[in-house]
Specification:
By secondary structure, this protein is mainly alpha-helical. It has helices at about 1-10, 15-25, 45-65, 70-80, 85-105, 110-115, 150-165, 230, 245-250, 270-275, 305-310, 330-335, 365-370, 375-390, 405-410, 425-430, 445-470, 485-495, 510-530, 530-535, 540-550; strands spanning about 240-245, 320, 350-355, 395-400, 475-480. The protein has 21 helices and five strands. It has a five-stranded parallel sheet with strand order 2-1-3-4-5, sandwiched between helices.
Length: about 550
């Protein structure tokens, strides 16, 4: 794959990358992938401690499940990892394996071993210690004299974190023929990467009728010589769908099999390089721009899919410009500029979705890290001003409020995480290390959780104020609360449980079921409140299918 090529080309170290990476996946990378390996602001070993504890917990569980010795499990994990991680895994096993095996056989657990080998440095912070001080065995720790085993991955992440645009884009039109690395998983597939005047959503046509200038798969002429594009699309009111948002908008999701010992097998990590190259996000399955077909276990319903069914001329005109860790400040400074739209393109139905990072941080001084109401309003007005210069006339903006994250603790705290600890124990562990994705909501203290929700509600009110006070020439606006509580209520009425709508590994994000329901919610809400935004059903949809089939697919 493209990702595998990039990784092999950049890999310079011999030295468990993806094994330890499993731990990093849990500890907040979904909120700001650019800080995946940073220890800034953490305590007690931070991410290194959490990663070590999680990985060794999995190893301990695998030894019990398979009734094998620890050394066999270490070799097994290295064997099932894809290159280049297998050689990195072998390095870590060679460096720490003997100590880990010795301490496991002496009856020590993952908390104790990770402290013994200095990955963890604060004996009060552990996953399994239930608040008591950890007894740390004394061992001689090997010295590492190698280049950082994360350099290849950190370089890739840095590139993605800076521009949030496709890595492979020959004509620099912000669309790509590759799916990963901010390619067509995130925005419509380019149908000509050698011509910057050809891309999804383009209105102005500088080419002959035989050229698919907007990549919707409709081109050429009928037997009478009439342009199919003009006949089928010109009067249909084509419109694209986009989201500017955070990790929830990008559909951050760690595959549960990665951290469920009983489900780990030789196929578990085969796709992990592709998962990493999409920043551990699944925008192709999200509730805003998801486009893949629904399967037995993966329901995909999105605003884009609904809009395509209404008008097949909208094919491929989607953009997920959501970024893990996004706040209103980064939206203003960076993310808004990653939206590929100009006044000469088709109008856009744009969702702005920032559901928590302006409230969330990993630190005990949570109050000082929250965005103030004043700053939130200034940031929002700034990026709306940018959009006023880039969005085509006739566009629409949906402003989505912040979540009430108290639902996380209320639904999960006494349930068991796939690792075997309770969610309360996982939350406390991450908070102790100052690396929690959201200290305020993933917290046993109800006063702190309430403070987070109070600020979130205050920030959400800013959107309604802006709609009342400001108008823009090229787009109109509407506000909706983030609909998780509403879809959860609906889910419960159908016999479900709220925890079934939350990602099991990180215990924070809306999962696949929730994303499908979010897509349903916004489509139905707009049908009710702004039906004219969505246009009429294209009477030529059947004709388009008859002539062009799947219109080139995705």
């Amino acid at each position: 794959t493209t990702c595998e090529y990039y990784v092999h080309r950049r890999m310079r170290v011999r030295p468990l990358v993806l094994v330890i990476l499993l731990g990093y996946l849990l500890i907040g990378s979904g909120f700001d992938t650019s800080k995946l390996f940073s220890q800034e602001g953490s305590t007690g070993g931070g991410g290194n401690c959490a990663a070590c504890t999680i990985v060794l917990s999995l190893i301990e569980q695998l030894t019990d499940l398979h009734e094998k010795e620890v050394e066999h499990i270490l070799d097994y994990l290295c064997e099932i990892l894809p290159a280049p991680a297998s050689t990195t895994c072998e390095y870590y096993v060679h460096t720490y394996g003997a100590i880990i095996i010795h301490l496991f056989t002496q009856g020590y657990n993952s908390d104790q071993i990770c402290h013994a080998i200095d990955f963890c440095t604060l004996p009060t912070c552990g996953l399994w210690n239930k608040g008591s001080k950890i007894e740390v065995p004394k061992v001689e720790v090997p010295i590492q004299n190698v280049e950082s085993p994360w350099s290849w991955l950190q370089e890739l992440i840095d590139r993605l974190a800076k521009k949030h645009e496709p890595i492979f884009d020959i004509d620099s039109d912000m669309y790509s023929v590759f799916s990963n690395l901010r390619g067509s998983s995130w925005r419509g597939k380019d149908c000509n990467d050698g011509d910057s005047t050809i891309y999804p959503g383009r209105n102005a046509n500088l080419h002959s009728v035989d050229v698919d200038h907007n990549c919707n798969g409709i081109y050429g002429t009928d037997k009478k010589g009439s342009s199919y594009e003009k006949l089928f699309c010109d009067e249909s009111g084509p419109m694209g769908v986009a989201v500017l948002g955070d990790s929830a908008g990008a559909h951050f999701s760690i595959p549960p099999t990665y951290m469920t010992a009983k489900e780990i097998n030789e196929n578990t990590y085969k796709n992990i390089l592709d998962v990493l190259s999409n920043e551990i996000d699944w925008p192709e399955r999200g509730g805003y721009t998801g486009y893949v077909e629904t399967s037995k276990d993966i329901p995909v319903r999105s605003v884009y899919k609904y809009l395509f069914e209404r008008n097949h001329c909208n094919h491929r005109d989607y953009q997920d410009c959501a970024v893990n860790g996004a706040r209103s400040g980064s939206m203003k400074d960076e993310i808004v500029f990653s939206l590929a739209r100009t006044p000469k393109d088709n109008p856009l139905l744009l969702f702005v979705e920032l559901i928590g990072n302006d409230v969330c941080s990993g630190h005990e001084d949570y109050w000082n890290s929250m965005t103030t109401v004043k700053q939130f309003k200034e940031n929002t007005l700034a990026y709306l001003d940018t959009l006023s210069k880039t969005l085509p006339k006739g566009s629409h903006v949906v402003l989505v409020g912040l979540a009430d994250g108290r639902v996380l603790w209320n639904s999960l705290h006494n349930r068991t995480h796939p690792l075997g600890a309770t969610y309360e124990e996982v939350y406390n562990f991450l908070n102790c290390l100052s690396i929690s994705p959201c200290y305020v909501w993933m917290n046993s203290n109800a006063t702190i959780r309430n403070a987070g929700s109070t600020r979130a509600a205050e920030l959400s009110k800013v959107y309604s104020e802006i709609i009342e006070e400001h108008t823009y020439d090229n787009f109109d606006m509407i506000y909706y609360d983030f609909p998780f509580i509403e879809i959860a209520t609906q889910w419960e009425k159908q016999g479900g449980k709220i925890w079934e709508l939350i990602e099991p590994i990180d215990g924070f994000h809306p999962n696949q079921n929730a994303n499908a329901l979010i897509g349903d919610f916004f489509w139905k809400a707009l049908q009710k409140d702004r039906p004219h935004w969505l246009g009429v059903v294209n009477p030529y949809n059947q004709n388009i299918t008859s002539v062009f089939g799947n219109q080139g697919g995705y």
